[in-house]
Specification:
With 327 residues, the chain is of the alpha+beta class. 46% of the residues lie in helices and 13% in strands. The longest helix is centred in the last third of the chain and has 31 residues, at 271-301.
Length: 327
């Protein structure tokens, strides 16, 4: 185990009575721990032995940055004390019968599920072991996942008085960037750039009414629920930066004049740039497939029955909170 060497000083303190340091030098990061070292007893809590293997397994479960906190001899003792305290509290919980509660049984079931999934992950190849051909096949079949869609930066005048729309639209189509900002301040319900604080630069007038970047209505990625689809469509119908849509966009009771502020073209990540993230996705897919296969096999070997009548009744009953609120 890769973290074993970080805890060797703890075993070295065991002294002659604990077997000294024999076998310690044989632990190599990334290699299985020698059995004689794994079973080395570090402490006893009643008749329960805490071994070096258990100590190292505790380290291995930690986040890599948390693990760095336990690199000194003093911190080794701190971690061992924490393991001992956890054992003492667990023994007390069992003495009180808490291991028989519904909550404890359910948590144990979830822990066993997670441990099974962890073992299934360990049976899968490492990221670097996934064949390059398989990675390439995924990239070719899912290129759109590694493309950043085209985007347009949009600014609007949300007309406070729709009856003036035709006149304001003509002014907007002929306006410079600064004149656009003045039109927003005068005619729009969207706030113009706020007054700057002392010492701060004033935001450019051309960003008045700015809604940020949007994607085309046909593109699900980058959509913004706060920006109407018709406004997005109008932005993609404008040919040049600084241009204004040729017609007022009606969205319910609202009337928009739409201006194109900037264009970001679609970009495609190369295979080399996407390769590592693809390996992660392929590995996740392998785990998902293995889990679904195991679940299917288990449903064939273990009888599963569902009380449809009780389920239907449960779906018809309101949540307990709603029942309580009605009293």
């Amino acid at each position: 185990m890769a973290v074993a060497c970080g805890a060797l000083a703890l075993v070295a303190c065991d002294g002659p009575e604990g077997g000294g340091t024999a076998g310690v030098g044989s632990v190599i990061p990334g290699e299985p721990m020698p059995p004689e070292l794994s079973v080395r007893v570090l402490a006893k809590v009643g008749d329960r032995e805490i071994t070096f293997g258990e100590y190292v397994a505790t380290l291995a479960r930690m986040d890599q940055f948390e693990r760095l906190r336990y690199q000194t001899e003093a911190r080794h003792k701190v971690l061992l004390d924490q393991i001992i305290d956890a054992e003492l509290l667990a023994r007390e919980a069992e003495r009180r019968g808490l291991h028989k509660t519904t909550q404890a049984i359910e948590r144990k079931r979830l822990l066993m599920r997670d441990e099974l999934l962890r073992q299934m992950r360990e049976e899968l190849p490492l990221l670097e072991e996934i064949p390059l051909g398989e990675v390439r096949e995924y990239y070719d079949a899912n290129k759109n996942e590694f493309a950043d869609p085209a985007r347009r930066r949009v600014s609007v005048i949300l007309l406070s008085d729709p009856s003036t729309g035709a006149d304001v639209l003509r002014e907007a189509q002929a306006a410079s960037a600064d004149e656009w900002g003045q039109l927003v301040a005068k005619h729009s319900r969207v706030r113009s750039p706020e007054k700057p604080k002392p010492g701060e630069a004033r935001p450019p007038l051309e960003l008045a009414g700015d809604l940020g970047f949007v994607t085309a209505p046909s593109e699900s990625r980058g959509s913004n629920p706060d920006i109407p689809e018709a406004v997005r469509a109008a932005a993609f119908g404008i040919k040049q930066v600084g241009g204004v849509a040729g017609a007022i966009v009606k969205v319910g009771a609202d009337s928009y004049i739409v201006r194109l502020v900037a264009i970001n073209v679609k970009t495609q990540r190369s295979f080399q740039d996407a390769m590592q993230s693809i390996r992660v996705r392929v590995l996740q897919r392998k785990l998902r497939t293995a889990r679904e296969k195991l679940e299917t096999e288990l449903r064939r070997t273990v009888k599963v029955t569902i009380n449809e009548a009780a389920l239907k009744k449960l779906e018809q009953e309101p949540p307990a909170e709603e029942n309580q609120a009605g009293h």
